[in-house]
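Anyone else keep sequences and structure tokens together like this?

Example one:
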Amino acid sequence: MHILLATDADWIVDEVTNALGGSDDTFTVCRDGRVVTDQVKERTPDLAVFDLQAGSMGGMAVTMSLRLDESAGALPHVPVIMLLDRDADIHLARRCGAEGWLVKPLDALRLKRAAKAVAAGGAYTEGLPEDAAPVGSMIGEAGDVHDRDEEADGAESSEEEPANAG
């Protein structure tokens, strides 16, 4: 399996490569998120792991860029795992279309489970209740972000009410 890792932190490179590196596995490490698209064009990875906070272009921006290029037909689909700093960042991972995420601190067992699930076409989500919307259900075919209530019943969310002037 070929894994694309985008981070500027040496400790994350060590954690991910040690946990996911096997005899047949290869890695491309991008220290700058702005070069991820070029790397995907050169060699499509089986899995991408993006650090949320990485230099000038972090995991959310990189994932959104890949999803927009994919929806335009410019790039193939790349399964993404995001490495989040805190539970509050889960919303960001869901909105940008990541198939999986882990909340730091990392450990090898969780990294392996996430990589196996996401590379196989599934999801790995930490911090969500069982009945939450599946990953990616918030991204439309054209890459449009929408609320899951709108998709479920075709109506506006019950939380949104028309405003009356005066």
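And example two:
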Amino acid sequence: MWIVKLGGSLARDARLPRWLRMLAELGGGRVVVVPGGAAFADAVRAAQGHWGFDDLTAHNMAVLAMAQTAHLLHALEPRLTLVSDEDAIRRAQHAGQVVLWMPLSLLRDAPDIITSWEVTSDSLALWLARRLNAERLVVVKACEVKRPHTLQELSAAGLVDGRFDQWADGAAFPIDVVECEDRDLERVRDGLLGGPSFALPGLLPPRAGASGDGRLDRGKAGPRRKPPG
């Protein structure tokens, strides 16, 4: 199973349909697409800045922003199957479908480790990859991704959120952060066709000591807290 996160910045990018088409054609039974929040999440940030409401409310609105982006992606590529929970993901994959995740199960009634702007759709894609014991996580960005790179460098540059590097600690799968340029699309395509021979410049290898569990750590985040589950 591959988790492929399509950044919200791709929502207005002319290359987006090519990525969706490639994943729909090659990802049956194997790929789970995670949408970013796109302009819908930007609207949440703006509303919170204006009205000053709490981060729990902003988190739930941002999750709904991801769901709106999922509907947008589905409209562009109807061969993707919209699902909202882990059991439905597994059923759709067993049926040979390409999954498009709406993370409605991440709506919260009370604050926890994920109800913060330090946790964006990038870290939620990582959370899902660990929950589902994924083979690989590919995060696709519309901006330039310099290579070689480390997760710490990407976090410092603002290309991934502040929790991503922490939650990647001990991941049992490789993590790739790529551009939406055609060269990276072809590399991802080759990976889906060729399996373990896939490699990208700047590949981020899994760290030692992976636990693979998906338990939810609630409360205040420490310096090396695992992702929620």
